[in-house]
Amino acid sequence: MKIDGHFDPDADIAWLRFEGYGPERAHGEEVDFGLRKTDPETGEIIALEYRKASETLPEEFLRMLPQPPVGVPG
């Protein structure tokens, strides 16, 4: 499985997108850690957004994620 991700330390938000992610078909739902996006046809999780990521995810993992490109929202 391929995973694409970014971490914005200023906003303290981490985005993880899994293989097959497509914004046109993602259904978002608020969860305790941020946002979970699922494929409405299969119910599979295709993306996760972690708010307060530095409190939720390991620091070593966050350091591995690149910052989002300038001018491109997560």
End-to-end span in angstroms?
Answer: 20 Å
The outline comes out as globular
Number of strands: 5
Overall average pLDDT:
90
Number of domains: 1
- Total helical elements: 2
Q: Unreliable segments (pLDDT under 50, ≥5 consecutive)?
A: none
The amount of beta strand, in percent, is 35-45%
Order of helices and strands: EEEEEHH
Structural class: mainly beta
Major β-sheet, in short?
5 strands, antiparallel
- Please state the CA-atom Rg, rounded to the nearest Å: 12 Å
Strand order of the largest sheet: 1-2-5-4-3
Describe it for me?
This protein has 74 residues and is mainly beta. The protein has one domain. Helix content is 14%, strand content 39%. A five-stranded antiparallel β-sheet has the order 1-2-5-4-3. A hairpin with a 6-residue loop joins strand 4 and strand 5. The longest helix is centred in the last third of the chain and has 6 residues. The protein is globular. The chain starts with a strand and ends in a 10-residue tail after the last helix. The model has no long low-confidence stretch (mean pLDDT 90).
